[in-house]
Design a protein that fits this description.
9 strands; 7 helices; two-stranded antiparallel sheet; binds S-adenosylmethionine; Rossmann fold
Length: about 240
């Protein structure tokens, strides 16, 4: 599946969702992470903070952060439909401090070096190829301030029977990828050791949690494993 096909797939998803959420309620792992940054790490999130949400969808996390903490939040997504839905909400509810832009995760991030306090990747970068992921990580490292934080929630391979079945029956172009038979997108699942090794080149993995959840399509729920990593830029 080419990059353009993936972009079209996601854009159609926001027009007629089977998988994504058009909800503006933030995901609880993201709100827990923000509390952890403030309370446990004693790192302020306030009007002076700059947040980046990559693959932001309709921008639910940016809207929450701007509303809750008064921070500036930049959200990038390559679905023009998702960004238009988010911008309509922002206008209707007069939300300030949120900047949603159509932009691919494979492009250079249009933000200054060392300018971002927190990056959020909530189930967004797992469809990248490995070379694209390496480029993205170098970009996140570049834009994050020294001591800035990165949140990642993504698919965990360890203990996920559905992932193993998908990998066996519908292998994708690279290690630990499958082409989803129904959704037609390529997804990567991560072993804990591979994830820690890859992200560990740039970030200290401060907290690593594993959870069970459900991926829904065609009105059915499939049990999946997820990893939730709280990371800090290495100096
Ligand atoms: C499962 S959704 C999650 C959306 C959002 N993070 C949230 O929690 O509501 C994945 C998102 O990643 C976006 N995405 C996937 N690949 C992307 C890419 N290469 N560039 C930009 N956005 C991408 C999709 O358009 C989609 O909005």
């Amino acid at each position: 599946m080419s990059r353009l096909d993936q972009q079209i797939f996601w854009d159609n998803e926001y027009k007629d969702p089977q998988l994504v959420t058009k909800s503006f309620i933030p995901q609880s792992d993201v709100t827990s992470f923000l509390s952890w940054v403030r309370r446990k790490q004693k790192y302020p999130i306030d009007v002076d903070a700059t947040i980046l949400d990559i693959g932001c969808g309709v921008g639910r996390h940016c809207i929450y952060i701007a509303d809750q903490y008064g921070a500036q939040c930049f959200g990038f997504d390559f679905s023009a439909t998702a960004i238009a839905l988010g911008n309509a909400y922002i206008q209707e509810h007069a939300v300030s401090g949120v900047h949603l832009t159509v932009q691919s995760l494979t492009d250079k991030i249009p933000l200054q070096d060392n300018s971002v306090d927190i990056v959020i990747d909530a189930m967004s970068s797992h469809s990248l190829l490995q070379s694209e992921r390496v480029f993205l990580l170098s970009e996140l490292y570049r834009v994050l301030k020294p001591g800035g934080f990165l949140f990642v929630r993504t698919f965990l391979k360890d203990g996920d029977a559905n992932a193993k079945e998908l990998l066996k029956r519908f292998p994708g172009p690279e290690k630990d990828t499958y082409k989803h038979p129904r959704l037609h997108v390529v997804e990567r699942v991560f072993e804990e050791k591979d994830f820690k090794q890859m992200y560990g080149n740039y970030f200290s993995v401060v907290s690593f949690d594993k959870k069970t959840g459900y991926q829904k399509w065609d009105n059915q729920s499939y049990k999946r494993r997820y990893l939730i990593a709280h990371m800090q830029k290495k100096s």
